[in-house]
Amino acid sequence: MKRTTWLLAVTLCSLLALFPRQAAAQAANQSDVAVIISQVSQASSDAQRDVAHLRIDKWKMEGDERRRAEARAASISRNLTAALPGMLDAVRVAPNSLAATFKLYRNLSALSDPLAALTDDAANGSKEEHNALALDAENLERARLALGDRLERITANADADLAKLRAGAKPQTAAGPKKIVIDDSAPAPKKPRKKTTP
Fold first, then answer.
1. DSSP H helical ranges for 53-126
2. What CATH number belongs to 27-162?
3. 55: alpha, beta or left? (left if phi > 0; alpha if psi -120 to 50)
4. Confidence band (pLDDT; 50, 70, 90) for 24?
């Protein structure tokens, strides 16, 4: 009886020691996600404001270049107002979802090129417009890199969990599946034994 009580006490102490670590890791994870979402949200709202206030019609550009800059500005604005908020909400709701995190990361990566091109085009406009777009591009890139680091960590955790599951599964035999052959043909009739007389 004493041995059982002792084992129960040791097991209980071990479990209690694990809970604070898991709770601390989960709290750090939630804090990490909140910081990244806050960074992306702030950078996004700043970029929306700055793109909306651009005076592309006043920039010293040719007609085709101006139309491309206007198309880039419209595309960036649509992404920041229509697509990005839904992706942020998906990560906020499921912070450990690889799919939601990767989708947000991919969207931020897709925003990088047109925003960089628009920033280059803004050199033909006022210095304030150019500097504001350059700062927005830098802030979005910083948030994207932080999200990429987080994506790498949660992917590594998922890989470790998958490896544990695979290790716990029963390995199949190397010979392959077992084959069972069933003979449905009728057996040959048995010959009756002759009795021998003494």
1. 63-78, 84-93, 98-121
2. 1.20.120.230
3. beta
4. very low
- First and final C-alpha spacing in the chain: 74
Q: Which residue has 């010959």 as its token pair?
A: 191
Give the tens place of pLDDT for each residue, 103-133: 999 999 999 999 999 999 999 999 999 999 9
Sorted by sequence, the CB contacts under 8 Å of residue 58 that are 6+ apart come out as 125, 126
3-state secondary structure of 180: coil
Query: In the prediction, which pLDDT does 185 show?
Result: 73
* CB-CB contact of 104 with 154 (8 Å): no
CA-based angle 125:129:135, to the nearest 5?
A: 135
Q: What gap in Å lies between CA 14 and CA 6, rounded to an integer?
A: 12
Among 3-17, 35-49, 88-102, the minimum mean pLDDT is found in 3-17
Long-range contacts of 17-21 (CB under 8 A, 24+ apart): none
Quick one: pLDDT at residue 21? 45
- The angle, 0 to 180 degrees and rounded to 10, between the axes of the packed helices 98-121 and 84-93 is 150
Inform me whether the pLDDT recorded for 44 exceeds 90: yes
Residues 6+ apart with CB under 8 A from 143: 36, 39, 40, 43, 108
